[in-house]
């Protein structure tokens, strides 16, 4: 095909340059042509893989923690995983020297402490059990948030 258009005048079957149309039924008499759109196979050759800005061939599958919805050829992917499965938080009140976060992540955790302004506060971290983290810090003038993240 060298010119774009709608096959059999049907907007649901657009053709663009590079597409092929193949007759799939036998023509009963020489010199006659198939009469309906269903007598043909349309092969679209100009469709490429989808990108962020180009509609094309692509597929997104839902999985653990991911839901997918399609509208007009566009996939909307949503994270349905909740952070409570992998993270826990606690607070060291301003002026206090320690705080504890109880969790069920085991001993393999990443622990960070930050001030209310978002600055990292360097503390000694003691994993007192496989279900809790105790932090020891110098007294701070602001509350400190304890962030615990499960590893693995």
What's the domain count?
3
Count of DSSP H/I helices: 0
Number of strands: 12
Mean pLDDT: 79
Shape descriptor reads rod-shaped
The share of residues in extended strands comes to 35-45%
For the largest beta sheet, what order do the strands appear in spatially? 7-12-9
Distance between the termini: 54 Å
For the sheet with most strands, the description reads: 3 strands, antiparallel
Rg over alpha carbons: 31 Å
User: Spans of 5+ residues with little confidence (pLDDT < 50)?
Assistant: none
What order do the helices and strands follow? EEEEEEEEEEEE
Kindly name the structural category.
mainly beta
Structure description:
This protein has 152 residues and is mainly β. The chain folds into 3 domains: 1-46, no CATH class; 52-81, no CATH class; 83-150, no CATH class. The chain has no helices and 12 strands. The strands form 5 sheets. Strands 7-12-9 form a 3-stranded antiparallel sheet, with no helix packed on it. A 3-stranded antiparallel sheet has the order 8-11-10, with no helix packed on it. A two-stranded antiparallel sheet has the order 1-2. The protein is rod-shaped and about 95 Å long. The two termini are 54 Å apart.
Briefly summarize what is shown.
The chain has three domains: 1-46, no CATH class; 52-81, no CATH class; 83-150, no CATH class. 0% of the residues lie in helices and 39% in strands.
